[in-house]
Each structure stands twice: as C-alpha cells, then as structure tokens.
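stage 2 :: seqdesign
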C-alpha cells in the first residue's frame, strides 16, 4: 500500500540510526519519500538505514549532529532543507533515558543531559524548522514522546518522564500557535517497545511488570510504531489532526 501524498516529500528524522527512528525512516522510504537520516555516535548504522531507505524506493542522505547542542540542531535542520530544497516533515525522535537515578541522587549534569536530549532538542529543531515550513506554505512536525509522560515513568526515571511530559505539552501548545501557517504538530507515545539495547537502561523486572499490566501481554515491535507516524505525516489521512498524542502501548494505559 502506498500513501500517494507522501511520495517525494522531504523529511528529517532525528535519532534515526537505530530503534523507532530507523524503523520510521525505512517506512517513509517505502513510500518514496526523501529521508534525511540523522545520527551522532553510530554513523555506521545511520548509513545502513539510508541504504535500506534507498532499497525500499526512497531517497536518503545521512547527517551527523549532537542534538543536545542548540547550534547543532539549527545546522541539522538547515542542512536537510538546503539538500532537499524544502522540509515537509520534521520527526523529533532523538531521545533516551540516559541513566536511571533516584531524584535524591541525581546530579545537575544528569538533569541537563536528559533535558537537552529529550526536551531541548525538540524545541530547538522545531524552532529551526518553522521558518522554512512557514515560507513554503505548511508542514508537519511529529515528536516522539512516551507513555512515561502520562504515568511518571518506571522506577528511577523521573527525569526522563518529566522531559517527555515537556514534549507532550510542547506539542499541544505549538499546534495552537502554528495552525494558522498550515503547520500540523502531533506526537506519538510508544509504550513498552522491544528496542535494541533496551536492557541497558530498563531492568528485566520492570519490563515483566509492565507486560503483566498490558492487555496484549507483549512488547510492541518497532514496525508496529511506524503506522502512527505515516498517518500523522500524510495530509490525505490526517489533515484535520493537530495537537494530538497517539498512544501506541498495547492498552497498557488508555486515555
């Protein structure tokens, strides 16, 4: 199935060398899109994702930037826009738990890193993209938030949950602000997803506890997240949808 209005559109996906971002990049590639694959520490994987996008029928470039740096975010968005001549869709996907810590033991540097990676990057990339989208007559911004934004997160991940709470609130507020420019702003909130290296930041007992509370009794797959991004990216499918957070969590938490 091809979503015809996505063919040829230009998209930048932050954090797309692995995980959900990589799956989304491949999914967009299968619809004939022009994809800017972003990485930082794992550029070999970013190059492989770009090759997969091309093999699926799309176009791809690879860009490197540390999205914790505001100036790097600006340059990243500018590079994508200059390469493609426009930017139809921005996917703010870069993020991560970084490190689990009780708040009483959390140091200032950890706070700054979690907020820079998960919250400030969304602000900076979105801010950089808006002038381009306004000048071309519209666009779409999709951010990856989390189930943690609504339930406070798993054990010792308060900072991560709070940073994702910013993403969800920022999504709704920005959607109101830029609707008059024909820019739609939405988010996707994955639940427990089977991602590479998940065990590095999430203990097995926390995953097991979440699965016992999930009606579908399993983790979601990376590919099961992609449809929500395709839907939100397509004007043909979601032209009257803005300021929304789509939950992809197997029923673990329902609105």
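stage 2 :: out
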């Amino acid at each position: 199935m091809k979503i015809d209005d996505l063919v040829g559109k230009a998209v930048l996906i932050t954090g797309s060398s692995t995980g959900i971002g990589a799956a989304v990049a491949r999914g967009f590639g299968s619809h004939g899109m022009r994809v800017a694959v972003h990485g930082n520490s794992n550029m070999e994987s970013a190059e492989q994702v770009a090759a997969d996008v091309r093999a699926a029928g799309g176009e791809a470039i690879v860009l490197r930037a540390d999205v914790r740096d505001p100036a790097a975010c600006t340059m990243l968005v500018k590079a994508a826009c200059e390469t493609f001549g426009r930017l139809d869709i921005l996917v703010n996907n870069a993020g991560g738990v970084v490190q689990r810590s009780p708040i009483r033991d959390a140091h200032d540097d950890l706070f700054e890193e979690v907020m820079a990676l998960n919250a400030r990057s969304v602000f900076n990339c979105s801010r950089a993209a808006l002038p381009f989208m306004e000048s071309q007559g519209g666009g779409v911004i999709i951010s990856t938030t989390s189930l943690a934004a609504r339930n406070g997160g798993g054990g010792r991940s308060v900072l991560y949950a709070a940073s994702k709470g910013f993403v969800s609130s920022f999504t709704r507020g920005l959607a109101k602000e830029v609707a008059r420019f024909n820019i739609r702003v939405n988010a996707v909130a994955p639940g427990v997803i089977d991602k590479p290296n998940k065990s590095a930041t999430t203990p097995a007992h926390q995953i097991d506890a979440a699965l016992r509370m999930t009606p579908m009794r399993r983790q979601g797959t990376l590919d099961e997240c992609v449809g929500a991004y395709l839907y939100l990216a397509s004007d043909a499918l979601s032209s009257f949808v803005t300021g929304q957070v789509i939950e992809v969590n197997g029923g673990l938490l329902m609105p």
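stage 3 :: structure notes
- The mean pLDDT is 96.
- The chain has one domain: 4-248.
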